[in-house]
Design a protein that fits this description.
mainly alpha, 2 domains, 6 helices, elongated
């Protein structure tokens, strides 16, 4: 989990998420970095807009709480086409892999 937090911290600080920066942050936090985990993290985040993914995660978490209005929005999204739904599922799947 500390690797994900490191990536989010670097993103918030507008610093590139690369192996060197991840190692520095982990070392300062007193965590012995694992080169394998760092490479996996950096590789999995290449081309990912973390700010956009956070917005999607917040929207997805808020949708069930909104009740009937949330259900309507879900139905409208399905009508747009499966390609958008597949993209969101793939993005969520990739993001959840960081936590598992």
């Amino acid at each position: 989990m500390e690797y994900v937090y490191t990536a989010m911290l670097l993103n918030a600080a507008k610093q590139p998420i690369n192996e060197e920066n991840v190692k520095k942050v982990l070392a300062v936090a007193g965590i012995t970095p694992s080169d394998t985990k760092i490479k996996a993290l950096v590789t999995s985040l290449e081309g990912v807009n973390i700010d956009e993914e956070k917005k999607k995660a917040v929207f997805a978490a808020a949708a069930p709480a909104s009740g009937a209005a949330g259900e309507t929005k879900v139905e409208e999204t399905k009508e747009e086409g499966p390609s958008e739904e597949q993209k969101e599922a793939a993005a969520a799947e990739g993001l959840s892999a960081l936590f598992g």
